[in-house]
Task: structure prediction
Amino acid sequence: MSDVLILGEVKEGSLDLKTLELLGAGKKLAGELGGEFSLLLMGDSVSGMADEALPYGPAKVYKLEHHLLQGFKTDLWLACLEQACREINPKVLLMSHSFLGMELGPRLACRLNTRLTTDCIDLSIDPEDGLLLRTKPVSGGNAISVFKCPGEPQLATVRGKVFAAAESGDANGEIVDIKAKIDESMIKVESLEIVREEIVALDKADVVVSGGAGLGEEDGFELLEELREALSKSFANVMIGCSRVAVDKGWISSDHQVGLTGTMISPDIYVAVGISGAIQHLVGMVHAKKIIAINTDPGCNMFKVADYGVVEDYEEIIPALIEKLEELS
Ligand SMILES: Cc1cc2nc3c(=O)[nH]c(=O)nc-3n(C[C@H](O)[C@H](O)[C@H](O)COP(=O)(O)OP(=O)(O)OC[C@H]3O[C@@H](n4cnc5c(N)ncnc54)[C@H](O)[C@@H]3O)c2cc1C
Result:
């Protein structure tokens, strides 16, 4: 029995940052429940990650290893997660609002006859009844609602970058093995691999130069690319982002989209070029450390969140900016 259980994710042989954030959330909720939080790691080889996880404070790291869990096969992962939940019997189960969480969360809720709240941006425990209060954006991000549901486990997927990552300290927890009860006959859904020409890890960028409808045409992104290159001489990881309108117009792929239905980012610097600042865009970038807006409309929303703003046609200001950056670098 664990009060709060986190479904961990592994990326490139290490615990994913989203899992560290969930451990931060789990610690907070366990404190509110007066209980403990634990981590569940599933995969074909997760022993190293179990050791890596202990200093982040979970009372237990449940390790469910099986060679059939290599790669993601929905049926097998779901069967293992259901098995683990039935054995551990957590009050609260948190997953990232990632591919894994979105694939497994609804199916698990159905199997365990409980309710799932997806894409939560805040969580707390109602002191009256110990149920999970789940805060999430609704109505296309125009409002924020708090939900409370019956059922156990209390199940939620959590958006990235909304909880601070757990900090590493003393490792007092223990590793507990769970023996997976799966075999190949359980595979019903076939997984296909999508091969991408370019991988855009926007959430890893230090600086994002983002373009919107105000670019006027696809070619506007060429100028942004020049700015990106100039900035790359001074900053490590500079990437191109965009608003949804730019994607809808077919100027750039959706991998670059920032916002509610795109990627949530918190870079050191966000440069918003010709982006009005619709709420669905703002929720995705408002945690950037410095926001620079370039827009012809002095009344646009983006200026309300910007640290620096230039009211100017981007085609005038960006070449001048590039020239200045070249001089300085
Ligand atoms: C459910 C839902 C989810 C959504 N998810 C997202 C999301 O994830 N991300 C997202 O971005 N949007 C999202 N949207 C769309 C969002 O509501 C806005 O429509 C979109 O963000 C607007 O994009 P924009 O700012 O590029 O365009 P516009 O709102 O048209 O703004 C263009 C801006 O460019 C400025 N401009 C014009 N010419 C120039 C120039 N020459 N130089 C400089 N500035 C200029 C204008 O003053 C204006 O402010 C979502 C909407 C819904 C309903």
Q: What stands out?
A: The longest strand covers residues 37-43. The chain has a mean pLDDT of 94. Residues 140, 212-214, 243-246, 257-262, 274-276, 278, 280-281, 284, 294-297, 300, 313-314 surround flavin-adenine dinucleotide (CB under 6 Å). The chain has nine helices and 17 strands.
